[in-house]
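Example 316.
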Amino acid sequence: RNMESEPDSTGNRNGLVIPKNHRKLHLLKVDHLYHLALDTEKDDLEKMFGDVRFVCFGGQPSRMEKFSALVARELNIDDHEMDGDRPKNYAAGTDRYSIHKVGPVLSVSHGIGIPSLSVVFNEIIKLVHYAKCKDVEFFRIGTCGGLGLEPGTVVVTEKAVDGEMNPYYKLAVLGKPVQRLAKVDQTLLESLLRCSEPDDDFKTVKGTTFCSDDFYEGQARLDGAFCEYEEEDKMKFLQELRNKGVCNIEMESLGFLAMCHYAGVKGAVACVTLLDRLQQDTLSCDVSMLKRWQVRPQNVVLRHIKKKLHITNGKS
Ligand SMILES: O=P(O)(O)O[C@@H]1C[C@H](O)[C@@H](CO)O1
Ligand SMILES: O=c1cc[nH]c(=O)[nH]1
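Predicted structure in complex with uracil:
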């Protein structure tokens, strides 16, 4: 694991991902990607993952497993590793996260919220580094609440803000706050927007994403276990957000985009709105609706991937 040369000003070199902490990492005899149950000694990460070009994250393991099956169909790849009749989960040694791989596409679950995302993000950055992946792009493909949008709309994040409307991810390091700007990669954003098609039965829009550390009070819901405000306070707040350009509300975009920018990796976030928060708070588990809608941002990202791979109708 010797370094050949110093990283350039973006932190990376020749399309390879060089973690900001590469010097200390390369002093380790073995690097344990603990929450993925992978390590640099027992696993030949370059052989396993060296051809990865796209890393797609989403909250639920089951959704990300289904996404990898969709990737296989759309990219016409049938030689990926299976575990019985299911795509192999490379993180099966732990039940924290899941990783599936189909050709150049890695499909990773991140759980709920930035703290959960941050752990798997650190380990995936190290994984793509050790695997010597080149020119990787990262995507978060998720769900969200919308503001004044027809439910089922796909929102591509143009700007992400925290629960106080700050455009940076804040982390306490050695007891002191560190701020990392959530800068959106404009080329990836524009490319995803160009992937909407006239025949789509849903709209794809861009906008500001409000990224909360909570699903209930942090998102101005009235249906949590705790709530010390009234309906009119909630509506006033959500209208204020809307007036400031907020289109959707979820829980990871800010950390995801900030960590991509800090790592020098191109990243974008596309989420489908499951409800209009100006109309309702409560989500029911209407599985058929969820199944239909959650595929929408997946398809938008897959169209981008196919364009990058010069694939038409599953053939390159
Ligand atoms: O990617 P998903 O759909 O899991 O993301 C949203 C944001 C939170 O993680 C979660 C809340 O239900 O859904
Ligand atoms: O309203 C919603 C829906 C999905 N995810 C969220 O964080 N909020």
